[in-house]
Each structure stands twice: as structure tokens, then as C-alpha cells.
């Protein structure tokens, strides 16, 4: 329970390794020596541009997105007392997708697409929360069901929009729906949100551990349950909205990463939340590197890679676990 | 005023009339048994006493302060509740489960200290489950899980114990061991309120009894005065045979058909 440092250090090393791979690999691959030269401010112009202007921002954006999704998933799982909950289960990605596709149909630029996706995710959050909260009795199963139904509704709207859209707009829309990091250029906001989420998570962690055992038990042990649940729900929604805004909808990271970590590290949220940030970031960085190198110069949607990597790993861990 | 004072308290059992309001003081050193048939509101009463449910009417004072004005954390440092039902959404080990009893005492930035771990291990040892400390709670038997839940409240070390059928699932030896633990807590100046279905445990261990009737009626007082066979037969609607062993009354349900 006390050993937070060892797993976090190991995960941080893995994250650094993944980021290193992401900036080294590509149409022109760099060796460790060239990479080191660029990072200390030397090296030729081509490799400087490649690393600092193209690959590093994208790798960091992938890292931030993966971390945000994994932390949001871990929070949602505690909130719903269901180890298989996911930030997208509650209809967040559906709302974001409708917002983004509307902006694309209107021919707006990528900044407005992102803003519209963010607004859609928040609208969906408020909708689900308002409906689930309606009569004042808010149980995890009620919230989950409301989210699932709202998500199904968004899914229908997305399909309708795809059916009615002009053919030339379809590839961009499909890429967005499958998750795409090729337009992600400013990783800083995402990284800042991720870092503050991890800082917030530590003092809340033990309360979340108690909340995971049920709201009555948590209240009996001194947790102010309702304010904590609000905080967790709003935080998880914001994290997901930011992630969706960076890279479109990427499934699976929020579900698989926290669950895999729980199988290996136990269920202390003070460890699981920062570990999710690191492992989720690492997974998506690696997935994005694969997505842009495996059939280069063509790029795959990163969401496909996360699913193809995540599903077998997850099934193996589940099979092997007690 | 007792450690927990009930003044004109009416618990909120949906669809039932108010009945007789409860006016009683639970003092340190006392063991109160709550008796009554299924669905009479014993669990609702315990949850109300713990501040987890609002009463329909009346007030509660805990440690001389109005319960409704104490924060959850302040309440959790004074009273602990052994739940009848427990949800295990996520797997957790026995030791981790006992450790959450320290939650009310730790600040948000604080990790559990060695002293906290020692308290949890002592509590597990006291309940004969120390050898299970690395096992997942979900893999234990019902009786072992019950003892882990009691060990968690022992780790919490509250001044007032509320226990909802703490002897559920326990074998005869551990039923007696748990009642002895609660009696020891009371002897050390703490107070205990427990719901029971076993009249004989109530007769052996409780200093006071509260009888809850299905129509909302209630009566309470020192155990010796409350253990009247006719009152108990009316309480459960069940004829009883009564005898006396070592000066303690013993009740056995009579076969009616």
C-alpha cells in the first residue's frame, strides 16, 4: 500500500522511452545520437524541424490525450462502482462527436471543430447528469443507464449526419470519429490539465478508495459523499472533453488502462490515478507512433491501434488474474 | 445526557404511521439490543442513529452536539457502523479493508502510518482473521467477511458502536467471541447498540433492550425488565418456551404445527 514510488518510477521510465521512440521513428528515423544532439540544442536543421516542430508536439499531444482518457476512466469506474465503466459510456464522446461533425459540416476550421466538440461533451454531461439526477435519487446504476441511453441517441444522430453528409466531407468525419492526432499541435493545455488532475487526485485518493466500497459505507467512514461524487463526475467529464477536443474520439484507453493497472497494482486510487496518467499516455504515444509508421506514408486512425493492442492484452490479463 | 441521546425520535419507515417516538439515552458502558421482527425498521433505526438517514421527527445528540450539525468526519470519529450488507465493487485485500477504518483520522495528504497498520493488524488478530490479511475479501466465506467488517470498525475505534446483526453468518464460537468483544468495548467505557434476532444472545449480553413492534409501537428499558415471555411472544407472534440456565433466561420457539 505504501509503495507508490517504485511502480510510478517504472511507469515514468516507460513513458520517457515511448516518447523517445515517438520522436525518433518516422519517414526519416533518427538514431539515439542524433536525437540527443537535437534535444541539447544541436543537430542539423532537418532533424531539428522533424523532432521539435513535428514529432514532439504530436507525441506530447498523444501522451496528454491517453493520460486524460485513462484518468477519466479510472475516476468514472470509482464513481459508478463498476470496474468496466468508461468515460465514453456516459455519452460524452457522442455529444462531442455531434458537436465536431456539425462544425465540420458547417465548414469551420479545426479550432472551431475542437471548441464545438468540447461544447458537445459538456452538453452531454449536463444532459446525463440532469436526467439521472431528476428526482434527487442518484444511484450509480441510474446514472449508467441514463448515460447508455443518451449515448445511443447520440450514436443515431451521428449516423444520420454521416448519411446526409456530402461524400467529400466523409473521410475527415470518419477519421475524427476513429480518433486522429495528425492535427494536434499544441499539447501544453492538455498536459497542464493532466498534471492538475493528478495533483487533485492524490488528496482525494483515499476518499475515493472508501467510496469504491459503496456510498453508505463511505458516509459512515466520514466521507461527504455527494460533494465528492459531484467533484469526480465533473472532473472526469472535463478530462474527457479536453481529450476529445485534442484528438477526436479514441475508445478503449479509459477502459483498459485503469483495469490493467488494477490487476497488477491493486486498487489504491492514490497509486492508480497517477499510474493511469502515465500508462495511458504511454499506450497512446506508442499507438500513435505505430499508426503513422506501420503503413507509412499512409496513416491509420489511432483508435484502431488502441483497440487492436488493448483487446488481446486485456483478455490475457483477465484470463491470468485470480 | 447520554453519549447518544434520542429525543422524540421518529424513524422514517415509508408507509408507516409515526408510532411511539423514542426518548432514550445511550450511555457509555451500556449494550443496547434492538429486537423486532423482519421489516420493523431496525436497520433504518441504526442508519438514522449514524446520521445516514434523516429522521421523520425528533433530534439526536451525539457527544452533546446535535448530530445533524456535526460533519461526516466528526461523526465517523465518534461512531462506527457494522453494516448488514456490504457491496464489493472492486477487489480488495482483508488488510486494505480493515485499514479504511483509519480514514476519519487521516488528513487528505497523509498516508497510513505504521501505527495505523498495527491497529488494523491487531483488530484482524482479535477477530481471528489475521492469517487472511492478503486474501481478497470477495474470496472469503460469509462468516469471515462478517469478522473482517467488525475488525474494520474495531480499527476505527469509535466511542459508539452501531452493529447491524453482527453475529450473522458466524458459527457458535465466533458469535460468542464477537459478543464478548462488544461487551469488552462497553466495559472499557464505550457504548454499543446492536440489532439482533437471537433472544438468547440478547439475554446473555445486553444491558438494555429496545423492542420495536410492526405497528410502530416501541418499549425499552433494562434487559431484565424487558425479557418478559408474553411481550416477546407478542413481538414476534411466536409462542416461546422459556427456561433458565445459570440464572440467564433461555428462549426456544415452540413448534406450532
Overview of the molecule:
- The complex is a heterodimer of chains A (322) and B (257).
- Chain A has 322 residues and is mainly alpha-helical.
- Chain A has one domain: ABC transporter involved in vitamin B12 uptake, BtuC (Orthogonal Bundle).
- Helix content of chain A is 76%, strand content 0%.
- Chain A is built from 13 helices and no strands.
- Chain A has helices at 5-24, 32-39, 45-79, 92-105, 110-133, 140-164, 170-178, 188-211, 215-220, 225-247, 253-265, 269-293, 302-320.
- Chain A starts with a helix and ends with a helix.
- Chain B is an alpha/beta fold and 257 residues long.
- Chain B has a domain at 4-87 and 159-253: Rossmann fold, CATH 3.40.50.300.
- Chain B is 33% helix and 24% strand.
- Chain B has helices at residues 42-49, 72-78, 94-99, 114-126, 142-156, 172-187, 199-205, 223-226, 229-236, and strands at 4-10, 22-26, 31-35, 57-62, 65-66, 79-82, 160-164, 191-195, 208-212, 218-222, 240-245, 248-253.
- In chain B, strands 6-7-8-3-9-10 form a 6-stranded mixed sheet, sandwiched between helices. A 4-stranded antiparallel sheet of chain B has the order 2-1-4-5, with no helix packed on it.
- In chain B, strand 11 and strand 12 form a beta hairpin.
- The radius of gyration of chain B is 19 Å and the shape is globular.
- The model of chain B has no long low-confidence stretch (mean pLDDT 94).
- Classes of the chains: A mainly alpha (322), B alpha/beta (257).
- At the A-B interface, helix 8 and helix 9 of A face helix 2 and helix 3 of B.
Amino acid at each position: 500500500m505504501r509503495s507508490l514510488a517504485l511502480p510510478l518510477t517504472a511507469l515514468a521510465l516507460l513513458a520517457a522511452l515511448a516518447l523517445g521512440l515517438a520522436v525518433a521513428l518516422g519517414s526519416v528515423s533518427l538514431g539515439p545520437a542524433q536525437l540527443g544532439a537535437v534535444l541539447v540544442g544541436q543537430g542539423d536543421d532537418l532533424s531539428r524541424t522533424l523532432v521539435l516542430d513535428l514529432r514532439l508536439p504530436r507525441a506530447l499531444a498523444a501522451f496528454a490525450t491517453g493520460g486524460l482518457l485513462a484518468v477519466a476512466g479510472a475516476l468514472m469506474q470509482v464513481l459508478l462502482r463498476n470496474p468496466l465503466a468508461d468515460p465514453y459510456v456516459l455519452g460524452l464522446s457522442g455529444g462531442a462527436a455531434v458537436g465536431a461533425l456539425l462544425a465540420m459540416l458547417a465548414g469551420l476550421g479545426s479550432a472551431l471543430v475542437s471548441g464545438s466538440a468540447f461544447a458537445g461533451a459538456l452538453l452531454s454531461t449536463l444532459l446525463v447528469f440532469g436526467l439521472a439526477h431528476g428526482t434527487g435519487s442518484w444511484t450509480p446504476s441510474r446514472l449508467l443507464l441514463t448515460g447508455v441511453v443518451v449515448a445511443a441517441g447520440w450514436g443515431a444522430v451521428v449516423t444520420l449526419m454521416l448519411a446526409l453528409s456530402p461524400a467529400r466531407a466523409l473521410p475527415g468525419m470518419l477519421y475524427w470519429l476513429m480518433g486522429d492526432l495528425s492535427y494536434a499541435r499544441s499539447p501544453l493545455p492538455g498536459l497542464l490539465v493532466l498534471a492538475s488532475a493528478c495533483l487533485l487526485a492524490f488528496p482525494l485518493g483515499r476518499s475515493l478508495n472508501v467510496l469504491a466500497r459503496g456510498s453508505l459505507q463511505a458516509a459512515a467512514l466520514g466521507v461527504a459523499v455527494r460533494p465528492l461524487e459531484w467533484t469526480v463526475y465533473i472532473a472526469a467529464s472535463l478530462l474527457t472533453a479536453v481529450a476529445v477536443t485534442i484528438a477526436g474520439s479514441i475508445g478503449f484507453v479509459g477502459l483498459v488502462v485503469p483495469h490493467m493497472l488494477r490487476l497488477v497494482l491493486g486498487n489504491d486510487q492514490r497509486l492508480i490515478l497517477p499510474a493511469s496518467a502515465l500508462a495511458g499516455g504511454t499506450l497512446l504515444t506508442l499507438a500513435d507512433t505505430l499508426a503513422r509508421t506501420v503503413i507509412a506514408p499512409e496513416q491509420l486512425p489511432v483508435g484502431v491501434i488502441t483497440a487492436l493492442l488493448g483487446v488481446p492484452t486485456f483478455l490475457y490479463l483477465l484470463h491470468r488474474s485470480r | 445526557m447520554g453519549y447518544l441521546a434520542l429525543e422524540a425520535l421518529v424513524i422514517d419507515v415509508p408507509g408507516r404511521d409515526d408510532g411511539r417516538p423514542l426518548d432514550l439515552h445511550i450511555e457509555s458502558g451500556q449494550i443496547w439490543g434492538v429486537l423486532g421482527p423482519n421489516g420493523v425498521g431496525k436497520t433504518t433505526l441504526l442508519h438514522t442513529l449514524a446520521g445516514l438517514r434523516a429522521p421523520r421527527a425528533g433530534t439526536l445528540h451525539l457527544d452533546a452536539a446535535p448530530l445533524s450539525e456535526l460533519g461526516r468526519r466528526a461523526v465517523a470519529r465518534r461512531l462506527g457502523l457494522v453494516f448488514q450488507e456490504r457491496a464489493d465493487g472492486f477487489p480488495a485485500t482483508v488488510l486494505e479493508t480493515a485499514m479504511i477504518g483509519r480514514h476519519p483520522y487521516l488528513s487528505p495528504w497523509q498516508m497510513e502510518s505504521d501505527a495505523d497498520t498495527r491497529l488494523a493488524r491487531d483488530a484482524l488478530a482479535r477477530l481471528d482473521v489475521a492469517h487472511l490479511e492478503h486474501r481478497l475479501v470477495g474470496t472469503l466465506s460469509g462468516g469471515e467477511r462478517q469478522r473482517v467488517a467488525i475488525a474494520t470498525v474495531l480499527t476505527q475505534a469509535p466511542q459508539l458502536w452501531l452493529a447491524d446483526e453482527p453475529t450473522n453468518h458466524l458459527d457458535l464460537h465466533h458469535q460468542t467471541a464477537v459478543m464478548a468483544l462488544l461487551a469488552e468495548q462497553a466495559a472499557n467505557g464505550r457504548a454499543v447498540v446492536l440489532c439482533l434476532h437471537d433472544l438468547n444472545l440478547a439475554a446473555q449480553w445486553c444491558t438494555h433492550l429496545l423492542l420495536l413492534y410492526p405497528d410502530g409501537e416501541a418499549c425499552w428499558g433494562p434487559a431484565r425488565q424487558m425479557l418478559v415471555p408474553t411481550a416477546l411472544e407478542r413481538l414476534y407472534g411466536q409462542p416461546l418456551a422459556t427456561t433458565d440456565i445459570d440464572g440467564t433466561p433461555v428462549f426456544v420457539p415452540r413448534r406450532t404445527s
